[in-house]
Please model this.
Amino acid sequence: MAAATPERVRQLVAPAVERTGLVLEDVAVVGTGPRTVVRVTVDLTEDDTAELDLDRVALVHQAVSEALDEADVPSGPYTLEVSSPGVARPLTQRRHYVRAVGRSVRLRLDDGSEVVGRLDQVDGPVDDAVAVVVPVTSPGKGRRPVEGPPQQVPLHRVVDGRVEVDLKGLGPVEEPEPDGEDVAGPGTGDDERGEA
Model:
């Protein structure tokens, strides 16, 4: 029985993750003994246009759990956490950029400059990939954003790339009624059995 190092866990779970059609992004092993937590981060492949929903995460969780249990790694009880990287993760691989096409990005380059705008496309093979970013500036409240000319950014020059989360277009937050009662009042809707 081998120790539950991140490298050993990665060896065991990578084939299981690949069989589910996902990519193994990261592995972490925290704690020891009955408090051991194995964290597995998975992501979609570059050409997968589906969402990484809870059903897919549950499927990979089952596959990873079976692989670890079969190898008895870690030995004894452990907690398995399977998740996706989320929007805050840095863009470090070509497939990350491909998945972010259409979103706002902030790219810090090796010369200290920054490119901020909408990621329009990613061209070229992995080793020579180029991101095409359209700078978008907001001229002020009530005015349309202005697009600048597209900029081609070789990915090997990006020191730090991130998706910019834009919460401006979400609209107002609905507040619940102060007394906590249903706005429609009693007797206006159907109950769970479909009766009025």
Q: What stands out?
A: DSSP finds three helices and ten strands in the chain. Residues 6-83 form a domain with the Alpha-Beta Plaits fold (CATH 3.30.70.1350). The CA atoms of residues 24 and 133 lie 27 Å apart. The first helix runs from residue 6 to 19.
